[in-house]
What we know:
The protein is of the alpha+beta class. It is 36% helix and 23% strand. It has two domains: 43-236 and 395-481, Zn peptidases (Aminopeptidase), CATH 3.40.630; 240-391, Alpha-Beta Plaits. The strands form four sheets. Strands 1, 2, 3, 6, 7, 8, 15 and 16 form an eight-stranded mixed beta sheet that branches. Strands 11-13-9-14 form a four-stranded antiparallel beta sheet, with helices on one face. Strands 4-5-17 form a three-stranded antiparallel beta sheet. A hairpin with a 2-residue loop joins strand 4 and strand 5 (146-148).
Amino acid sequence: MKKIAQILAALVGVVVLVAGVRTCTVSSQQIEVEPLPPAEVDAGAAGKRLGDAIRYRTISHFDRSQLDRGAFLAFHRFLQRSYPAAHRALDRERVDDLTLLYIWPGRDPSLTPVALLAHQDVVPVPPETSERWTQPAFEGVIDGGFVWGRGAMDDKGNVMAILEATERLAAGGFRPARTVYLAFGHDEEVGGTGATAVAALLAERGIELDFVLDEGLAVIEGLIPGLAQPVAMIGVVEKGYLSLRLVVEQPGGHSSTPPRQTAVGILASAITRLERAPLPARLEGVPREFLTTLAPETPLRLRLVLSNLWLFEGILKRFLAGTPGTNAVIRTTTAPTMLSGSPKDNVLPNRAEGVVNFRILPGDTIASVTEYVRAAIADDRVTLEPIGHPREPSRVSSTDSESFRLVQRSIGRVFPEAVVTPNLVLGGTDARHYGEVARDVYRFSPYRFGPGDLARAHGIDERIGLEDHADAIRFYELLLQSLD
């Protein structure tokens, strides 16, 4: 026994030594760059133009007959009035009726072009929440150093910041080294047919893009407890999307003489089993790269964990699974969202339906998730039907390419205090439609957000800081100037 104890003690010592050495020797993956001198951006004037843009109710709808086409066309005219130098220097065309595609010819046609994306459309404001806004949702009020209104964060801020930067450069006679495409979709919030049409048009014209930069992740303050610096996350991959309709058909009848289990009961049991058997957590790929990139910048105790995932992975997965936001990073999520049964309280339904939405982690597929669901339910009375527009997880873009370094350097110069990392995008963006025409696809919005700000997008009191908007303009201006 004594010898076994000595061996165990020696093994523990080796583990402690290895973990300690890795913790102390892990090296930073940040790029050293000179902070960008403050540019003469008139934050007040730019903020006013963003406020004016918010007043155009460019709301997208799944039912296209509800779309206010006139609001979009009026917004287009507003952009032409607001950015005359940009509209003289760039060619403009409308694609899929309301999506805007701008082409800024480069000085060197041998260089592969790039594309900057954003979207014009916004989500509706539910009538029952309109009175809870600090400022009216569609008036673009400037108050307290912020521009308030629907679309400020998602995504008119990016549309306007890109055009502000383009206007400043074009007015000074600048022309980019390589051709730049600006694509502003009109229906990103409801599927992105505009983005699909632009990508198809580029493919038809034989155009391959070096990289695409779209909205997605941002500069988040207070993301990691104990980490003083904000974290600037570049999305290099998007989760996939699948909604399955669960259908149970049983004899109906009067509720006074129910069978032992009704269609509703069978459906409820199936959904309960799904919720109790989530898909397995996995700490691999991009989420793992995010943590290892972050590790050298964190306080010692956290660095010990993040530098030694071989040792602490199990503990870390359990911790991450504890909150919805971090749980979504490590697994394909399961979210029951819709239910229907009888139209009357005393009638047994012949058919009960439920919809369960899955956001698919890279490494899983539509087919594998569907089979997992079938096995977890284990009831042949429940049939599965995919609905909507399922999509596989996107291809992972390179973090070793010069285009990634270009975005990273630009972030470092405008946000010198931030730690730059790759990460996974949980939602969907227009960028996913460009995978076949771009070598790399990145998703980053150059705005600072605190933890409490993230709920504002699609929620109540959406807003952007005036100085944050000025920094976004500086970012796009620097990026355009660096494309050689």
